[in-house]
Amino acid sequence: MNNIPPHNSEVESSVLSSCLLMPTEYTELIECLSPSDFYKSAHQQIFKTIKELYNKNSPINLVSVRNENTNISAVHLTELSEVPVVIDSKWAIDVLSGNAQLRRLIELGNALMKRGFKSRWDEVVQQVDYAQRESLKIGENANKKGFSHISEIIEDAVDRCETISRSGGLTGIPSGFRDLDALTCGFQAGDLVIVAGRPSMGKTALATSCIAHASRVGYQSAFSSLEMPNFQIANRLLSLRSQTDSIKFRSGKFTQEDWIRLHDAAAEIYNWKLYVDDGANLHYQDIIQRTRKIKKHYGLDILFIDYLSFIQGDRELGVVKEIESITRALKGLAKELSIPVVLLCQLNRKCEERPNKRPILSDLRDSGAIEQDADVVLFLYRHSRYVRRYNDDGTETEEYQRCKHIAEVNIAKQRNGPTETIGLYWNETTTTFRDLKNDNK
User: Fold this and answer.
1) CATH code at position 46
2) Are residues 41 and 120 in the same domain?
3) Are 356 and 313 members of one domain?
4) Structural domain for 81, as ranges
5) Is there a domain that residue 394 lies in?
6) How confident is the model at residue 366 (pLDDT cuts 50, 70, 90)?
7) CATH number reported for the structural domain that contains residue 175 in this entry
């Protein structure tokens, strides 16, 4: 605790000398640095005054700085004018800002120590979240960038166009569904994607299909399942990849052919970069902390969460504000880690009270914050859930036969793309989706 914080007085003096003697040649120093980047309080005061004069487009010299702030020592200013000016501005900026970041880390460490001693055992989640959030702020400040010349931006834009062209238009994490990817270009980094529907529409099945495809093609995925335990998730993945009847995972009545496919599927899934968390009753802060850990230690491309109603939010704020606290935090997580966050959500019963039971945005449960925070909203709908399934003789009705394999995914909101409805093929036996083909299935 008695160590002197990181700083470099010589570089600080040299920077101030440059700004005082040749301000027009060293505007980069004035623009990129802030008073807190200087360690000595006298240096902070001088640079703050220089910055204020610069912002007012006033002359900067020894006299103007002294006149602007009479608390600054004239002797000190004269001494600074005799210090050699900076040779490499970028190097000087890196030295001062780097030392400043180290000092901020030290300050955060001291603050965390004090908070740790004062906190109760049941406040550990909040304190860990505070520590992670504040340390990330320091990292963000270290990477802040100002204006860029248009030439740099244009070059980056052309490079991105070339990359998109080579990728066939897929700029995000593929869902594995041809028509959906064509409209969304994949799940985009930084987006909060809502997959919503009434119970038993297949929300988890759709998410599982997307997870399986992303994992198969090499993306690193995470699945936070607050509803299903790990073994059920594993069963779904095995059923999907082996095309084995899902009922057999409960009855155990596998054929020899089933076992061959199961072992092949298990061998494939074993090598996926997929991480599953079946923790129940998690607070959104728990999910955020666990996701940050995965990202830091293993890397992460996309996160799926099943589902919103099981996540604990800030309950003391009331139901509406609690949901808002969850969606706002998960949107922030998507931006922070630069990954898509796909959140499954249950709709309220309003849609079932209408003749046309296809969901609309107002059906999102309890809060307008879901629609507001989401970058993409996908509604899952299967008409077969609302028609009579069997005739009196036990055979399937004609209406049910016509729609039993048809599912709709309505892109009801897409911040940066079109809204449209696409069709998918639903296989009830394996509880899986696939692209619709030009056949009569």
Assistant:
1) 1.10.860.10
2) yes
3) yes
4) 9-142
5) yes
6) low
7) 3.40.50.300
pLDDT band for position 145 (cuts 50, 70, 90): low
Is 357 part of any domain?
yes
Is 0.70 surpassed by the pTM of this model?
no
Q: How many CB atoms lie within 10 A of CB 178?
A: 13
Q: Say if residue 208 is in the same domain as residue 352.
A: yes
Structure tokens at 122: 């049941």
Indicate whether 80 and 134 sit together in one domain. yes
- Among residues 20, 39, 13, 55, which one has the least CA distance to residue 98? 39
**pLDDT over 70 percentage in the chain:** 94
pLDDT for 221 equals 95
Q: Which amino acid is at 132?
A: Q
3-state SS, residue 88? coil
Query: Domain for residue 383, yes or no?
Result: yes
Phi, psi (degrees; rounded to nearest 5) at 282: -80, 140
- Both tokens assigned to 99: 């030392």
In a domain? residue 311: yes
Find all residues with CB under 8 Å of 190, minimum gap 6, and list them.
Answer: 334, 335, 338, 339, 340, 375
Each residue's pLDDT tens digit, 4-17: 899 999 999 999 99
Does 235 lie in the same domain as 133?
no
**Which residue do the tokens 């001291």 mark?**
110
- 220 and 284 together in one domain: yes
Q: State how many domains the chain has.
A: 2
Q: Is the peptide bond before 298 cis (omega within 30 degrees of 0)?
A: no
CA distances from 257 to 67, 241, 243, 253, 415 (A): 90, 14, 11, 11, 46
3-state secondary structure of 440: coil
Classified as helix, coil or strand, 306 is strand
- String of DSSP letters for 341-396: EEEEEEB-GGGGGSSS----GGGBSS-THHHHH-SEEEEEE-GGGGS--B-TTSPB
Residue 196: its H or E element: strand 192-197
Q: With CA atoms as reference, report the closest residue to 379 among 350, 419, 339.
A: 419
Tokens of 17: 């000398």
Nearest to 345 by CA among 384, 315, 374: 374
CA gap 384, 393 in Å, rounded:
19
